[in-house]
Amino acid sequence: MTTYETMSFHLETERLILRPWADSDAAELRALRAERGEGTSTLEYTRALIAQLIAATETTGIALLPIQRRVEGDFIGYCGLIIGRSTPEEPEIAYELFQRVHGHGYATEAARAVLDAAAATGRERLGATVDAANTPSFRVLEKLGFERHRVSMEEKGEVVWLTRPLP
């Protein structure tokens, strides 16, 4: 198995800061997850989820990071690398933003920073999996150079697998 460099856990772009999780992110992450329409989890559950994300980062050397707007200072979502349906050698890029900030290019901007951070780890390829009906995510991934690889059926429906070589 190849050894990879640890991903940078603090990324900055012109408009965004991606940084490590803090316990103070729990209320905002809880609200973001509630926007999915799958109910609202407790703050305790969300804090435990953040602890799991931090533990996964320590184990894998990659991270899913909160996104904060530079000027406003507000939490608007997350972006980063996860194992997900993939492997440590070829992790998945993942992102989710509050609906109120959709359409401003934040997901693309954050994901570009994560792509650069992934390339710096020495990895050669990234994956992504997207619900077949999630057109906005496809637009972001296509802007970033991801190409459709295959489709699978899962319990919740069709999932499209995409890949992108690095750098």
Protein described:
The structure is a single chain. Helices cover 31% and strands 29% of the residues. The chain has 4 helices and 8 strands; from the N terminus they run E-E-H-H-E-E-E-H-E-H-E-E. It has a 5-stranded antiparallel β-sheet, sandwiched between helices. Helix 1 (26-34) packs across helix 2. The chain is globular.
Share of helix among residues? Answer: 25-40%
Report the order of strands and helices. EEHHEEEHEHEE
- The whole-angstrom Rg is 15 Å
The main pleated sheet reads as: 5 strands, antiparallel
Structural class: alpha+beta
Detail the poorly predicted runs: none
Strand content: 25-35%
Overall mean pLDDT stands at 95
Strand order of the largest sheet: 1-2-3-4-5
Distance between the termini: 20 Å
Number of helical stretches of at least 4 residues:
4
Global shape: globular
Number of strands: 8
